[in-house]
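haha ok so turns out i had the wrong file open the whole time. this is the CORRECT one, sorry everyone. sequence first:
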Amino acid sequence: MVRELTLICGTCARAIVRDDGCLWVDRREAGAARQAYRDLERRCTDPRDGSMSFGLADLRTLPAPAVWRAEHRKCDSDPEDAARYRIPAARLRLRADLLDWTAHLTEKNWLPHTDWRVLLRETRTGSARLAVSGPRPPASLAAF
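then structure:
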């Protein structure tokens, strides 16, 4: 089968080519980021008219989005961690697979508090966690 996407293990920096790994995110991290945003919204919303007012200092208190990571099974420091949402490498071979996963993940309330959008953008040129082969989108789509 054709493979356009190859995950790169964040631990050993080798390609996950035998489908012996996954892409994962810690739902606790994403949930904590989600809660921090909700707390900020609650603190900064005027109860009289519902408007929000916050400053740069408020934004700096927010945690970074939870990071999606790729790892081989043998490199996974905690393979039994139930809080990790895992996508098997075998189910991420094509860019179209990422579209399917994106449709599925949009149902998760924690997704906006991860770097999934960054991962999607990496399918254009590749990155430290994702190698890309096959036809690439036209350069004119780079801004999208």
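The chain has one domain: 5-134.
again sry for the mixup
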